[in-house]
Each structure stands twice: as C-alpha cells, then as structure tokens.
Amino acid sequence: MKHIVKIMTLLVALSALWISLLQTSIIPESYTWLLPLYFIISLGCYGLLMVGVGLMRFPTCPHEAILLQQDIVEAKGFLKGKGVDIGSD
Amino acid sequence: MDETMKKNKYSIIVPTYNERLNIALIIYLIFKHLKNVDFEIIVVDDGSPDGTQDIVKQLQQVYGEDRVLLRPRPKKLGLGTAYIHGLKHASGNFVVIMDADLSHHPKYLPSFIKKQIETGASIVTGTRYVKGGGVHGWNLMRKLTSRGANVLAQTLLWPGVSDLTGSFRLYKKSVLEDVISSCVSKGYVFQMEMIVRASRKGYHIEEVPITFVDRVYGSSKLGGSEIVEYLKGLVYLLVTT
Hints:
heterodimer, A: about 90 residues, mainly alpha, B: about 240 residues, alpha/beta, Spore Coat Polysaccharide Biosynthesis Protein SpsA, Chain A, seven-stranded mixed beta sheet, two-stranded parallel ribbon, 9 strands, about 45% helix, about 20% strand, globular, transmembrane helix (chain A), membrane (chain A), transmembrane (chain A)
C-alpha cells in the first residue's frame, strides 16, 4: 500500500470517529466541533517541540574536527613520502 | 567473527568530482583503518578537470591496481548513476558507499562491518543523530533546517531510520542492486529514496553512530532550491512508496 494511502486511511478513520462523536453526543456538541482544531494545533505543537528538542540536543563533535586535522597531517606526510603529488595546499 | 570477515569482500564506491586532495587522504585513511579486511576501493570520477584521476593513478602505484580501481566517466552524470557504474565493477559481496569529501571518516568502517556481522543486516546506515554521533561545522540555520526536515520526514514517512539523508552506508551487494534500480531521484533526495524504498521492501536495516565534519576542503551548500527539492522529494516518496 502506498504510504499516502496509509495516512489517508488514518485521517478517514479519525474523521469517522469524529462524526460518530457528533452523532451520539457523548460529549457536548460544542466541544466536539472544536476537536479537529485541537488536533491540528497539537500536531503543530508536536512538530515545533520535536524541532526544538532536536535543536537543543543536537549532537556536535568539535573534537572530531581536531582529530581529522591530525589525520590529514599524518596522511599528507605518508603520501609525500611515497612520492604522491598531492600539491602544497 | 574473524572467520566470517575473511570470507567477505567489501567494495567501497567513492564518487568524485574535483576531489584531488581529498581522494588521496581518504584512500590513505581507508587502508589505515581496514587492516585484515578484504576490500577494494572503486573511484568513480566524473571527468574532474583538477587531476583527480592522475592522483588516483599515483595511488594505484602505492597500493596496487587491484585494491584501488579507477572507473572514470567522461563527464558529470550524477550521483545515482555513479553508484550504478561503480557497482558494475564491484567484485565484493558487500558494497560501501561514502562521500569523498572527508565528511565521512573511514575510521567508522570497522563498526559498519562489525554491526553487519553481528546482526546479519542487509543495510547498515550511518546516523548522525544518536549518542556517539554528531555534526561539526554547521551553523544554527543549517541545524534548524536539518531538524525540521527530519521531523517532517519522520512524521510523514515513518521510515524506521533516524538519519534519512546521510549517505555513509554498507549494503549487501544484491540488496543495493535491487534498491538502486527502482530509485530515480537526484542529489541527496536520492539517499532518502534509497533508504525509504529499502525499508518498504522489508530489508533489515541497522544503524551505527557516525560523526560528520562538514567538508574541510571545498564548500558545501544548502540554499532555498535544496529545500524545495527536498519537499518535492518528500511528496514523491509519499505517493510512490
């Protein structure tokens, strides 16, 4: 099944649930009408939260940059010794 | 474990375009970190004008023409077809794909190989977004774009891997051949398409942490057009996978 179909199915199921809530009025109708709005808002909040948390906990590795420079010096030394023309930059 | 490793051969495909210095460094580092492993390096150069191919020929003199293979193409023809081209010349039963710009460090190759042997996975993909992984050299804007893109893709595609656009991966050769033939995207959307299609086909995918030091020599770019390409890629994957 194409992924878009899965997502559509999920949305249709949610709509069906919502309509049945409207019909049966288990909870007051005025609340039920607002549910899709809450859904969209919480989806947006979820997205922003995930991006925010991801940004705060973004793994960085400044030490790796230093290690890489050491590796580069080592590699250049070896290759020069073998007569490989890697240039002077 | 050593027994299994002796039977396996790893073909490391490195596409290049104007990577004269970087390709020399990376080949040195691969040989340094992969001792006691049977492997070959396949350099697919797209007619670089800076003499990348001359350097590779010199490296063949140092390491041997059977270990460093130069399989050039006449002009810039894109990343996806570079892998297909390299794959045609690969003699290993496993294929590693990595960038030549030193953002992918060969010191992680043993952990890819170890993970594959331990789990029997069809694909081992490097991820920057877990403990032990990381990125260096990105500004806040780049980090924000990357996180946003990732959350969007995770929410919409449920891919089952944490780093979709990373391109440091180890594949079983047959799996790569199968997946690559159904991928049509360009650029780094291609990397995303590969892993999403592999995931949908039910292949066993494992992850290992890698660090990513943004390119030391040369420049990388991420502009508005890349973001548009990414969003188009996302929609494309939504409706086709």
